[in-house]
Amino acid sequence: MELKRVVITGVGTVNPLGNSVQEYWENLKKGVSGAGPITHFDASKHVTQFACEVKNFDPLLYIDKKEVRKHDLFTQYAFASTAQAIEDSGLDLEKVDGDRVGVIWGAGIGGLQTFHEEVRAYSEERPRFSPFFIPKMIANIAGGLVSIKYGFRGPNYTTVSACASSTHAIIDAFNMIRMGKADMIVTGGSEAGVNEAGVAGFNSMRALSTRNDDPKTASRPFDKDRDGFVIAEGSAAFILEEYEHAVSRGAKIYAEVAGGGMSGDAFHMTAPDPDGRGASLVMKWALEDAGIKPEDVDYINVHGTSTPLGDIAEPKAIIKTFGDHAYKLSISSTKSMTGHLLGAAGAVEGLASILAIQNSIVPPTINHFTDDPEIDSKLDFTFNKAKEREIKFAISNTFGFGGHNATLVFKKF
């Protein structure tokens, strides 16, 4: 069958660098860190006491006051970014055929804070659980509630693949539209893991940075002295739309989704394949799906979490995939600024990739102080300062616990 073209016609975000797309982009360009002491709870007894939190978020801008208590924070973030994306897209909801619009969302964990609060309350205060416990906590509820709010009756489900969740969601949305299953799909992801359970759980794995004395420089992708990732929260949403449908309504177009790849490491529960085999495969398959050559790519927004093992494996995979062209690529890890949004990481970083294409600017990898001898220093990681560059094709990598790898290819429109 002839596959349809898919474009991005609306975007929205709430993340540690801003509660709008414009604020996010301005801070990305400037190399601003979103990290700081945790304010959501008393973190004094935790090994890590800082995070990249969303700041000054007002759910009442997007949700009725009576409804807020029914929704976990990850769902509130989803409502916010989706509302922004729909407004940005210029959609006239009264004229949209809801049967042809879907919602495919990504969340790695879902309502972790709700789960924590309910179990604590049951064990300490009351002999019952709230009737909102299950519907607030389940990972699919954000996407379900978005579809209910707007009357979108097309394909509707949630992808759960740890840190690759929202990239998988966007790839699925892309595939649904190009196969003619929908005209438009709201996609992206949300996560709200900055809570006691999230921080304590990742601390137990020794996955988080413990640089409590200097949070803003704690996320150090590819730096010799990196000591773990900085946990973050937030959301990003996209309106993916069939090209002819977008043109017919005069929509503005940010970029085209050119392809997507998916692979598995088949190696370890939490550690990446040290040779980057799965990461190389997913990039190779994404390029093949987009019908482009390695040398066509200008920019890679890497997974780059600031963990000891992951930051060694991914550059190896890039060199394996791109050969000599690897040294002509611009590479950056925006997690150095946003922290790691877990299941929402792919959506927020995909948005960074699209904005990089649109503005011909590569955002930086901040907090680089010392080269790691195990990482090829000839690669251009765009350390510490953004740079201007025309970007025709950008790819965005996300890799999750369990060996889940997902890569998106975006094309300049």
UniProtKB/TrEMBL annotation:
Q: Which organism is it from?
A: Maribellus luteus
The protein's GO terms of the molecular function aspect are: 3-oxoacyl-[acyl-carrier-protein] synthase activity
Q: Where does the sequence pass through the membrane?
A: none
Q: Which PANTHER family does the record cross-reference, listed alphabetically?
A: 3-OXOACYL-[ACYL-CARRIER-PROTEIN] SYNTHASE, MITOCHONDRIAL, POLYKETIDE SYNTHASE-RELATED
Q: Residues of the signal sequence?
A: none
Supply the InterPro entries for this chain: 3-oxoacyl-ACP_synth-2 (IPR017568), Beta-ketoacyl_synthase (IPR000794), Ketoacyl_synth_AS (IPR018201), Ketoacyl_synth_C (IPR014031), Ketoacyl_synth_N (IPR014030), PKS_Beta-ketoAc_synthase_dom (IPR020841), Thiolase-like (IPR016039)
Function, as annotated? Involved in the type II fatty acid elongation cycle. Catalyzes the elongation of a wide range of acyl-ACP by the addition of two carbons from malonyl-ACP to an acyl acceptor. Can efficiently catalyze the conversion of palmitoleoyl-ACP (cis-hexadec-9-enoyl-ACP) to cis-vaccenoyl-ACP (cis-octadec-11-enoyl-ACP), an essential step in the thermal regulation of fatty acid composition.
Q: What is its EC number?
A: 2.3.1.179
**UniProt lineage:** Bacteria, Pseudomonadati, Bacteroidota, Bacteroidia, Marinilabiliales
Q: Which reaction does it catalyse?
A: a fatty acyl-[ACP] + malonyl-[ACP] + H(+) = a 3-oxoacyl-[ACP] + holo-[ACP] + CO2; (9Z)-hexadecenoyl-[ACP] + malonyl-[ACP] + H(+) = 3-oxo-(11Z)-octadecenoyl-[ACP] + holo-[ACP] + CO2
Query: What Pfam families does this protein's entry cite?
Result: ketoacyl-synt, Ketoacyl-synt_C
Q: Where is the Ketosynthase family 3 (KS3) domain?
A: 3-412
Q: Please indicate if the UniProt record lists Lipid biosynthesis as a keyword.
A: yes
Stated name of the protein: 3-oxoacyl-[acyl-carrier-protein] synthase 2
UniProt pathway annotation: Lipid metabolism; fatty acid biosynthesis
